[in-house]
Write the structure tokens for this entry.
Amino acid sequence: MTYKIAVKWFPISLVQEVLAAQQPAISESWSFSLESIPTKVLIISSVVLITCIWIGCAYFMANRHQKAVQYLQSQLDELWLLQAKPSVWPHAPFIPNAREQNPPEYIPPMDPQEQEQEANEARERAEKARAFLETRNKHKDKE
């Protein structure tokens, strides 16, 4: 709180000091020159002005940096979810539950015996289809 009060009263005191230094000059003429302001006041006011500008620029850059980091983090989260489980993206990674009903997107892993049996059935279907196509092609050639 005292910091805010000091910041508010500091420029007022600087202006009062400048006006007090100019009182003799004002009585002679109405012209204003930079030499009439004391050097210490100029230095202090310049330092305050440059500091405020520097703090404003730093705040602006930090704000932009924070927004960029948040955007990149959201992109990274989406990429991670896409690589984790494409069937349930963009939701949270899916962990199958043995006690409850799993969603229809979930395909449970197969036993090696079941995989081998399905591979044999697929091979037999492919052989039957190949034999059917060969006999059909032979009948077309005869006609």
User: Anything to note?
Assistant: The chain has three helices and no strands. The radius of gyration is 41 Å. The chain has a mean pLDDT of 78.
